[in-house]
Amino acid sequence: MMNLYEVARFLEAHDNYDILTHAYPDGDTLGSAFALSLALAQIGKKSRVITTGIPSSFKYLPKLDEQEFETQTVVSVDVAADSLLGSNMSQYIGKVDLCIDHHGSNTFTAKAKFVDKFAAANCEILYKLFQRMDVKITHDIANCLYTGISTDTGCFRYTNTTAETMRVAASLMDFGCDTAYINKAMFETKTKNKIMLERAVYDTMKYCADGKCAIIHTTLDMIEKLGIGDDEMEGLASIPRQIEGVLMGITMREKQKDFFKISVRTNENINASDFCAQFGGGGHPAAAGCTIEGDLKTVTEKLVKAAERFL
Amino acid sequence: MMNLYEVARFLEAHDNYDILTHAYPDGDTLGSAFALSLALAQIGKKSRVITTGIPSSFKYLPKLDEQEFETQTVVSVDVAADSLLGSNMSQYIGKVDLCIDHHGSNTFTAKAKFVDKFAAANCEILYKLFQRMDVKITHDIANCLYTGISTDTGCFRYTNTTAETMRVAASLMDFGCDTAYINKAMFETKTKNKIMLERAVYDTMKYCADGKCAIIHTTLDMIEKLGIGDDEMEGLASIPRQIEGVLMGITMREKQKDFFKISVRTNENINASDFCAQFGGGGHPAAAGCTIEGDLKTVTEKLVKAAERFL
C-alpha cells in the first residue's frame, strides 16, 4: 500500500485521468471525484469523472467542462469492491491504476492503493492528500469535500466521526464552503413523495418482542399508488430503530411480487448480521440485510418469530 | 461588559454559587450549568444548579451531590431575559451577579455580563472560559459541553455553527466525550408517542400557494386521543418547512378550545416575522409565531389566505 505522500507524487507524475465513482453515487464518492478533478486541473492535468445517475440533490456540486483526451490513468474514489462499479464501468475492472478509499473491507482490484479505514469519509483523505500537493483548497473544492464528509457522517452524528473529522470540516469552513446551503439540501429537504411515503410507512409500524423490535414495510401496491421511484426509498431503514426502547428495527421492502428485501438496524450489541444469517443474509453488526420469499403476512410472521427468539 | 479573562478572575474570587438555567431547560443551559458546577468544584468552590423540570433525555448529564451552603454568588447561564427564568426562580430577578450568555438579544438584569453572540452555544463560551482558569476538561465536563454545543447547533447542521465551533467540539472529543451516546440520545431517539404524533400530524398536511406553503396542525382532540404530553410536542414546527419547494411552513397547535398557537418557519428571504405581525405576533426572520382565535376551519382559512397573499 502507498502512503499519502506517494499518492501525491503519483498524481503529479501521471496525466489524462478517468476518475471512477461507485454505482448509486452518494455525496462522498461524488464529492471525492469532483474535488480530485478540480485539484488535478490546478496542477495542469486533464480528467473526467465517470459516474452513473447523479441524484438531483447533488447537482450543485461544481463540475469541470468536458475535456478531450485519451485516457492514460484510471483512479477510483470511495469504491470498496469491483462489484460496486456501475454497469457502465465494467471495462475498467482490472485496469484501475490507483484506488483511494476509506472502507476497511476494501477488496477492489487496483495496481496501487491507499485505504485509510479511520477516515470518516473518503473526502477526509483527499483533504489531507491536497495538503501534500501544490493544490489550493478553493471554494469549489471545499464544497465538494464538505459534502462528502457531512453526508458520510450524517452531519457529524455517526460514530465514524473523529476529532480529526471535525478539524478537517473546520478548515473547509475557513475556506468558505457553503455549509448552510449544503446542510439544508442534504439534511433538511424532503420531497413531497418522501413525506407521503414516510406517512404511509408509519401506518405499517408494528412492535414485537415486548417493544424491543419494530417492523415497517412497503409493498409494490403502496409504491405504485404513491408513484414513487426507487431512489426515493433511501433512508427508510433508519426509521424503526430510532424509537425509544427499540433494539432492532426491521424494514421490509417488497421488490418483486412476494419477494422482500429485509434491512435490519440494531442498537446496543444486538448483532444484525447474526440475525440476517438465519435467512442467508449478512452485513455489519449494526446494519445487515437478507431477502425472504413469501407474501406480506407470511414474511412478517417469520420475522416476528425470529425476532422474539433472538431478543 | 466583562471580557473572558475577567470572568475567570471573578469566578476564582467568589464562592458559594447558585447557577441558574432558563425555564424549559435545553441541552445548552443544562450542559452549561452542570459543567460550570463541576469546574467550580475543581477550584474548591461550592455550587448548586437551580433549574426546573429536566427532560428525562438529559438525565445522563453528570451532577454533583447536593452541597450545604449559604448562597453568596448568583450566576446565570444561557438566560437571555428575566422573563425566561423559571417561576421557581423569581426571587433571583435583579440579584444575579454574573450573566454568561450567547444571545445577541440579551436583556437579562445582572451586575456583570459576558455575552458573545458569535458563539454557537453557551457551552462554547464555557470551554474557552475554562481554558483561562485552572480547570481540567474532565470526561464529565466534556460530556456537558458537547451536549450543549451539539444540541444548539442541531448537531453542527444549523447556520450558527462556525469553524471555531467545530474545533471546540474536536477538542471535547480529544477529551473523550461520549459522542456516540449523546448523539444517539439527542438526535436519533424518538418516543413511541412522538412517532404516533408525527404520523397523525403528517395526515393533516395541506399545501397552498402553489406548494410554496405547507400547513400542519394538532388539535386538543388529537392530543387527548394520543395521550401525549406538552413536552413531546417539540420539533413539530420543523416538519413542514423541510419539504422540497416549501418556502413557508406553518404549524397550528390548538392550546385551548378554539385558540391556536401558530409557529411559522421560512426559507430563502421569506420573512416569518412580517407574516406573523399581520396577526399581532413576531420573532426572527426565519422563525416566528403568533396566536389566532377561532375553530380549526376558520383559522386554517385565515392562514391560507394570508399565505397566498404573502408569497
CATH architecture of the largest domain in chain A: Alpha-Beta Complex
Helix and strand sequence of chain A: HEHEEEEHHHHHEEHHEEHEEH
Q: Largest interface, per-chain counts?
A: A-B, 41 and 42 residues
Total domain modules of chain A: 2
Task: Tell me about the largest β-sheet of chain A.
Answer: 6 strands, mixed
Q: Which percent range describes the beta-strand content of chain A?
A: 15-25%
Structural class by secondary-structure content of chain A? alpha/beta
Low-confidence stretches of chain A: none
Shape of chain A: elongated
> What's the CATH class of the largest domain in chain A, please?
Alpha Beta
CA-to-CA gap between the ends of chain A?
Answer: 42 Å
Task: Provide structural commentary.
The relative contact order of chain A is 0.10. In chain A, the strands form two sheets. A six-stranded mixed beta sheet of chain A has the order 6-7-8-9-11-10. In chain A, strands 2-1-3-4-5 form a five-stranded parallel beta sheet, with helices on one face. By secondary structure, the first copy, chain A, is an alpha/beta fold. Chain A has helices at 4-13, 27-42, 122-131, 139-152, 163-174, 179-187, 192-202, 220-226, 238-241, 272-277, 296-310; strands spanning 17-20, 47-50, 73-77, 98-101, 112-115, 206-208, 213-218, 248-256, 259-266, 282-283, 287-293. Chain A has two domains: 4-187, inorganic pyrophosphatase (n-terminal core) (Alpha-Beta Complex); 192-310, Diaminopimelate Epimerase, Chain A, domain 1, CATH 3.10.310. In chain A, helix 3 (122-131) runs antiparallel to helix 4 and helix 4 (139-152) runs parallel beside helix 6. The radius of gyration of chain A is 21 Å and the shape is elongated. The longest helix of chain A is centred in the N-terminal third of the chain and has 16 residues, at 27-42. The first copy, chain A, has eleven helices and eleven strands. Helices cover 37% and strands 18% of the residues of chain A.
